[in-house]
Each structure stands twice: as C-alpha cells, then as structure tokens.
Amino acid sequence: MAGPRKLIIVANRGPMSYARDASGTRVVKRGGGGLVTALRGLVSQHDVTWIGSAISDEDHVVASENNGLAVAERWRDGSPYRLRLVAHDVKAYDAYYNVVANPTLWFIHHYLWGLAYVPSLDQSFHDAWRDGYARVNESFAEAAADELQREPGATVFFHDYHLYLAPRLVRERCPDAALAHFIHIPWPEADYWTVLPRELRRAVFDGILANDVVGLHTNRWRHNFLRSCADVLGAEVDESESTVVHRGHRTLVTARPISIDPREFDALSEDDAVLEQERLLAADRPELLVLRVDRTDLSKNILRGFTAFGLLLDLHPELRGRVGMLALLDPSRQDVPEYAEYLAAINTEAREINARFRTGNWLPIDLQVADNFARSVAAYKQYDALLVNAAFDGLNLVSKEAPLVNTRDGAVLLSENAGSYEELREWVECVSPFDLYGQAEALYRALTMPLEERRRRSEAIKTHVRENDLSAWVAALLEDFDRAAAGAGA
After folding, report:
1. Could you state, in order of their start, the residue ranges of all structural domains in the chain?
2. For residue 411, which of 309, 324, 289 has the smallest C-alpha distance?
3. CATH homologous superfamily for the domain 262-467
4. For burial by CB atoms within 10 Å, which of 141, 240, 252, 465 has the most?
C-alpha cells in the first residue's frame, strides 16, 4: 500500500466549528461524535481537506471571509489539514436536515416507521427533497469538484446518509475521480425502500453507485445493499465479487466494522475526571449494576430496555434491593417531535418502575439525561451487566468501548440487530430487541453467570477490540480504495 495520500473528506459536519467568547474573540470548538473520532487516523497520516457544513453563525462568517474556500487548521494532536465550510441557504439546510435526512432517511435505515400510519409524504416533502436535500447535495458536490480541480489525484471520501446524491454530481463533473462512500448506519432490505417514492429511491441508489467503493459495517448490511441495488435499480450484482455495475461503472461493496482507539480509552480510564466520577459512582452503587449508555434515539430501544428491567424485578423478586440500572442518556435531536416524545416516554417509564419497586434507599432505575462522557467512562469500568438492546444499529461503539475498560468482568447483553453482534456474538448474551421476556431472562443469566465464564468472555472481547482497533479499520478502508483502483471500469 502506498504512503500518505491526498483525501477529500465530505461529511455533513466538520471536525470543528467556530464561535465567539464573552470578549468577542473567535474561538474554535472541537467537534465530538463517532465520525470525527473515527477519521482522526486519516487526518494524522494523510493530506486531508475536510468539507463540512457551516453550522454556527461564526462558521458562516469564516466561510464568507474566505470566499467559501478552505482554511488551514490543525487537529487536536497538531496534525495539519484544510477545512472548507459550505454555507448553505438556511431554509434549504433545514429541509435537507430536519425533513429529509432526519427523520425520513434515518427512519428508513433503522426500520422506525410504523407504516400503518406514517409516513405520509405530501407535496411539502417533495419540495423539501428538491429545494433542500438535492440543493444541499449540489452545494457539497460543487465544493468537492472544486477541490478536485486543485488536487486531481485526490480520493473523495463521502460519509453517511446526508450525501447520497453528491457522488453522482461529482462524477458528472469529474468523470475520472476516485470516489468512496462509507455508510455508518444499517442498510435495510429492499422492500423498506418503497417508503420513498420510486424516483427518489432510485436517485439514492444512483447517487451512491457513482462511487468506486461503498463501505458498510457488517456483511449483513452489505448483503442488504447488494440485493437492494438489484431490486431498486435493476443493477448488475455479483455477490461473489461483492460488486455492482450500474451505468457502466463498477462499485466495490465492502464490510468494514469500525472500531475504537484502545490507547485513548486506556488513558481515559485513568483520567482525573473519570476517577472522580468513578469514586462517586462506587460510593453509591448497588450490589449489582446494570448499565446502559445511549443517545435518546428511537433506534436505541431504551423504552423496551426499561420495561424488560421492570419485568426482571417481577420475575426474580430476590433481586429487588440488590440490582439497579444506571441509564446515562445523551439527549438527541430534541427539535424533532418524535425524539422529544420518546424522551418524555422514557422519563415516564422510569418513574413508573421506580414507583412500583422502590424501597428505602434502593432506586431501581437511576436515569440521568446529560452529556457527561467522564461519567460514562467511569460507569463502563463499574458495570456487572451492560445492556445494548438497540432496535437496529449500524455498529454500536458502546459495545466495544465499555468492555475494554471494565474492571469487574462484566457481562454484555447485545442486540442481534446491532452491527457489532456480527463480531462479538461468541462472547455476549444475545437479545432480541423486541422480546421483553427474553431480555429480562438474559439480564438474569448475565447477573448470575459464574465468574469464570464472565471473565472468559470479557477477556475475549478485550483481545478482539485491541487486535481490531481503529487503525486497522483505517488501513482496511485504504486497501479498499486501492482494490477498486486496480479493478476500475466495467
């Protein structure tokens, strides 16, 4: 594999944003989230230009000052890169993000629509697609094509569901460009794509298949994608080679499960803020601690997890007073009505379970809704059972982060619909996310599992995560770029 290469990363959000402090001085806010963390290895090892949306008011000022062109920036470790902020029309961005991408496409990918009632895609949705999603994708494509004029040999690396139309638009402008796309969420079966009108779902697939490489986290999502290409577009699919030919162009489709940087979590586990949070947690923890750490996203299946925990207390009354659930939830997309309603339902369910079972100082469910990563890492170290019961999840990094730093040989309960289940299935308690009784019994098995078996499983997960870390994921992606280049054309 060649050494450092030129990469143009295109994602809805950049790795940082700009703001003004109380004195009016411009300050940089470093971005968080899994995507920024995952791509750190690319920035530190390669010549990267990152194209993202101008989100804050100060982002728009910076974009205007630089006539929309890229500015020189540095990563947290000092690595240089270029940042190009695309200033979208405010109404167009709102339609793109809050009508089409979230929730419509996100709901399709995670099977979240209750199809008996929703969605009902009226004219306003079609307007949002044309004037929002398509328009913003056009702006991203223009920026990417402009950067390719500066660096014709660069690989353009798109990310996620916000940018399904952009690759085709770049391909039309730059026919010989090297294009790749990683999709960080599940890929649903073909029938579920009929939620979108025919011309729109065909546009999604046509856009993605302008790429030379499409990456997903698991073979399950890869198989769904391949079958969907045939069913939605009538594309020529070769399952054995994992390729799709559409409009005379071959696309390589790969499964590359993302991972974490073990060194980062080794350091975090001994960080002063984490140790202080762990001291507070240990002083007040129940005998047996069930942990869940999630965003308040409908796909995370928090509500059923709470209900299953209540059922555990019904079925096994001997655990009352001994076991408690700590739920550390990060509020997500509260401007979307479905998400605000879901958080309200989560709070209601926790209150009802606590009202039914609480005695003395014992609190069955300790629900904390806040963004407190230090407390999450401290709780990772202390759990006896980790509950990850997502309805559908592209991968789920919690299922890798938490076992890596856990100090109690904690058991992991993992949804069969989480992408990480494909990797970790030998060492976890499998749960069906919709089976409340099954989840309750899996919790009981996890909490009563012999120590030797818990330790065997825990050590196996830790070894797997260390051997298949974030740097290995980055290396695999770059190998995919090279494989596609070697087999370019139909």
Report:
1. 6-258+472-486, 262-467
2. 289
3. Glycogen Phosphorylase B; (3.40.50.2000)
4. 141
Q: Which of 219, 231, 224 is nearest to 194 (CA)?
A: 231
* Amino acid at site 477: L
> CB of 237 within 8 A of CB of 230?
yes
For residue 46, which amino acid is it?
A: H
Measuring CA to CA, which residue among 284, 238, 215 is closest to residue 480?
215
In DSSP notation, 19-87 reads EE-TTS-EEEEE--SHHHHHTHHHHHHSEEEEEEE--SHHHHHHHHHTTT--EEEE-TTS-EEEEEEE-
Residue 49 · residue 82 · CB < 8 Å: yes
Topology of the domain covering 6-258+472-486: Rossmann fold (3.40.50)
What sign does the dihedral 311-449-402-371 (CA atoms) show? positive
Distance CA 286, CA 279 (A): 14
Cβ-contact 261, 469 below 8 angstroms: yes
Are the C-beta atoms of residues 182 and 477 closer than 8 Å to each other?
Answer: yes
- Report DSSP state, residue 330: E
Running DSSP on this structure, what letter comes out for residue 393?
A: B
**Nearest partner of 440 among 315, 351, 298, 294, judged by Cα:** 315
* pLDDT tens digits, one per residue of 294-325: 999 999 999 999 999 999 999 999 999 999 99
pLDDT per position as a tens digit, 221-251:
999 999 999 999 999 999 999 999 999 999 9
| 1 has a pLDDT exceeding 70 | no
Please, are residues 79 and 61 in contact by the beta-carbon 8 Å criterion?
Answer: no
Is the pTM higher than 0.85? yes
Reported as a single tens digit per residue, the pLDDT across 99-110 is 999 989 999 999
Task: Quote the CA–CA distance of 98 and 106 in Å, as a whole number.
Answer: 11
Displacement of CA 93 from its chain's centroid (Å):
21
DSSP per-residue codes, 260-327:
--HHHHHHHHT-HHHHHHHHHHHHH--SEEEEEEEES-GGG-HHHHHHHHHHHHHH-GGGTTTEEEEE
